[in-house]
Structure formats: C-alpha cells, structure tokens
Amino acid sequence: MVALLASGISVFSLLLYLLIGAFMVYMNARLFINFLFWEQTTAFDDNGTLLALRESKELARCVPDAPRLDRPLYRGAIIASLWVLLLLFLLIGVQFPITLIRLSSVENPEQAMALMQALSQAKTPDALMIASDIISAIVNLILRPLLAAAFIVLYYVAKARRGT
C-alpha cells in the first residue's frame, strides 16, 4: 500500500485501500473473538471441534454488562497485546547488540548499506546471525508458555463468571 501511495494514485484507489484495510482489521478482530478460548475449550471439554468454537465465542462475549476491563474479550486483547509488546522488546533487545557488533566497523551510511546487502545476499549465514536466531528462538520458547498460562487462567475465570 505504501509503494502504491508513493507512485501517485487516485483518491478512489486510496479510499478503496483504506476500505480493504478496515475490512481486514474487522475480520481479524472477528477471528480473534471466535478463537479466543478455542484451544482451551477443545482441550478441557468433551465437545467436538465446532461446538468448541461456538463455546469459545460465547465465553469471549459472556458478561456483556460488566465494565470493559472485566470482560473476557477485553482482558484477552490486553493480555495478547502486552505479550506481543514484551516479545518485540525482548527480541529487539537480543538483536540490537548483535547489530551494533556487526556495524562497529562501519564509518558511513554507504558502508552500512553495502554490509546489509552483502548479509542479505549471502548464501550461508554467519556466526552472529546463527547466534541471533538461536537466542531469539530461546526467548520465544520462554515467553510462549506465559501466554498459554495467562489464557488458561482467563478461560477458567470466564467459565466461572458465566456460571458453567
């Protein structure tokens, strides 16, 4: 979309892009609501797949008259957002020192661009890139159970509030 904006487009196509973008956000939000507790419902209940999906949607939307921060849907969105932010900050914290080490010998922007192009076109990754990938995978493996545990607790709170 940014590339098309740079090439000079009409107002109609800009409105069309914005409409398509809004529709994509809407569809992703609907999928988030429907699948919020699907894994927990499938694992902990004896329902089939489709019944678990319906139960997940109902759990996400239970207690509609509660304050927004007490609703399972809002809590799930907040937990997922905080988890993604924590993951991004930690991954940047892992990647940034390695990037600084790699760019320590660079004296001007042209050298930096040449170095980055050489790295992107290299056939085999170097030791720093492999180390960076391994550390990033370890950070991801450490944080993933935290998200799962938070959603399991949120699932049981939603079931308790709904009364089932």
Order of helices and strands: HHHHHHH
Proportion of residues in helical segments: over 70%
Distance between the termini: 46 Å
* Number of strand elements: 0
Fraction in beta strands: under 5%
Write down the Rg.
22 Å
Mean pLDDT: 87
Spans of at least 5 consecutive residues whose pLDDT stays below 50 are: none
Main sheet attributes: strand count, strand direction, barrel closure: none
Q: Which overall shape is indicated by the principal axes computed on the Cα atoms? A: extended
Structural class: mainly alpha
Total count of helical runs of at least 4 residues: 7
Provide an overview of this structure.
- It is a single chain.
- This protein is mainly alpha-helical and 164 residues long.
- The chain has a domain of 89 residues.
- The protein is 79% helix and 0% strand.
- The chain is built from seven helices and no strands.
- The protein starts with a helix and ends with a helix.
- The model has no long low-confidence stretch (mean pLDDT 87).
Spell out the blueprint of helices and strands.
Blueprint: H1 2-6, H2 11-35, H3 38-44, H4 49-60, H5 72-102, H6 109-121, H7 127-162
Summarize the structure.
The protein is mainly α and 164 residues long. The chain has helices at residues 2-6, 11-35, 38-44, 49-60, 72-102, 109-121, 127-162. Helix 3 packs across helix 4 (49-60).
Tag the structure with descriptive keywords.
164 residues; mainly alpha; 7 helices; extended
